[in-house]
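User: I'm curious what two different proteins look like when written out as structure tokens. Can you demonstrate?

Assistant: Sure. I'll show them one after the other, since each token string lines up with its own sequence. Here's the first protein:
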Amino acid sequence: TDTKQVPWYVVNADNKKKARLNCISHILSKIPYKKMEYKPIKLPPLPEYEGYVRPP
């Protein structure tokens, strides 16, 4: 099942957390993407609540 279009990769999994992070990093590095420009989000001011007493 290992082909040029769908290669297999061996992951050293002695440390499970690092192995998972390495897999995620590798998969994301294989996905082509374009950097997108984002417009800043403008949020409305928070309403002031009357009767609220902040605990010390």
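Here's a second, unrelated protein for contrast:
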Amino acid sequence: MTTTLSLLTLTGERTVPDVADERYWFERHIVAYRLAAAKAPGLTVLDAGCGEGYGAAALAAAGAARVVAVDVDPQVAPHVARRYPQVEAVEAELSDLPLPDDSFDLVVSLQVIEHVWDVEAFLASLCRVLRPGGELVVSTPNRLTFTPGSDTPINPFHVREFTADELRATLTEAGFHVGCLLGVHHGTLLRTADRMLRDAVPHVLAGSPPESWPAGVRRLVHRVDASWFELREDALDASLDLIALCRLPRPEAPGVDVPDAHDRRPSEAPSG
């Protein structure tokens, strides 16, 4: 890999691969992308708010027929086009996608909704480009654990954070059927280090140098893997992140049965 293709700037607003001190956040994001990738084979997929592009590349590697990655940051599309040529990169506002109606089987938008000022317009845009019967996967930090005791996000790049009930209600009001809501939790290995990680989070969010993190945290962060997290349908209020698996209902048409994307490949649906 050349220097030109190596990294998009680490701003604190997005995570990027290949940065050891960012590994905890990166691998935590990967959990949701793996879930979405299980749905991707053979489908036309949109990654709305793709960031660095690593997730869109994972969707393509999983066998998606086509992956379009959209981000509003003007740095992103050129970077994605260079580093991940298997992905179609587009610079655009997510609330005004320059894409045809009903053009995607699967829309993925991970760790994005909390950054959006006009959530209603954002979800309406996703609804427009998703074909009836298609699926939407959304992830976001759980407000109750990410910014406990406050309605004001601790992360300066977040506009609004959600509880599980708030996320479900917001997606339902936008016209989606929320079939399953999952919580991302620390698995066994990370649970043993929870106190250490909690102590580290304020340092990371404040942008303090990794050298100032509590003893042992940096070594642990460099080793974290997505498999160290687990998905659960219970204890949503205690989860780290929320993942909503949604479907856009089909208009009822007498005598016409158009299968949903996940109904065509039930064996690939996540076990939760």
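A detail about the second structure: The chain is about 30% helix and 20% strand.
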